[in-house]
């Protein structure tokens, strides 16, 4: 098992980076104003497996996508996956999506490996277009949208059932390769729609 990093953490060309070959997406930017009075932000983590400078991934490898604060109010976790051709997938693999401690250098241990998604299939030639993974595992419900991350954790995770206030923790959103062939092609983007605390 190895740790790899999106453009949120690692510069392009570094040994553990799996990033876009062009312009990197914005890290945290405010969405256009709408009818809500709560400021809504978006942050994205991008992996470009087709870049020849990037390593080949295998089962149990971890892709650290983006940082999350326990106080963030989470509305969506959206997934885009490239399709067939033009750097798309030719094989099939599955992944889980969960939380890990940040640690000193974004190398912390697992908190919950599949809180948001379990065994999501990525099939060669079948792109995902904005698939919402927030409730894919069915542990998180639609009713939990807009809750602070720590509130969601206290609702569904036994280890957090006695947590009654924001612990002030920071986590990494992590995609774990569950099964499938080595991955060295195609691209994945994960976007979090959220409201940071205090805004």
If you compute it from the alpha carbons, what radius of gyration comes out, rounded to the nearest whole angstrom? 16 Å
Give, in order, the helices and strands. EEEEEEEEHEE
> Beta-strand level of the residues, as a percent range?
35-45%
Distance between the termini: 38 Å
Strand order of the largest sheet: 1-4-9-6-7
Shape, principal axes of CA atoms: globular
Structural class: mainly beta
What is the residue-averaged pLDDT? 78
Low-confidence stretches: 20-27
Count of extended strands: 10
Q: What count of domains describes the coordinates? A: 1
Number of helices: 1
Largest sheet: 5 strands, mixed
Oligomer: single chain
Helix content class = under 10%
3D architecture notes:
The protein has 199 residues and is mainly beta. It has one domain (3-195). Helices cover 4% and strands 39% of the residues. It contains one helix and ten strands, in the order E-E-E-E-E-E-E-E-H-E-E. It has one helix at 149-156; strands spanning 3-5, 29-30, 41-48, 62-69, 73-81, 92-101, 110-123, 128-132, 170-179, 187-195. A five-stranded mixed beta sheet has the order 1-4-9-6-7, with no helix packed on it. The termini are far apart. Mean pLDDT is 78; it is low at 20-27.
Could you write a compact summary of the structure shown?
The chain is mainly beta and 199 residues long.
Give the arrangement of secondary structure elements.
Blueprint: E1 3-5, E2 29-30, E3 41-48, E4 62-69, E5 73-81, E6 92-101, E7 110-123, E8 128-132, H1 149-156, E9 170-179, E10 187-195
Parallel strand pairs: 1-4
Antiparallel strand pairs: 2-3, 3-10, 4-9, 5-8, 5-10, 6-7, 6-9
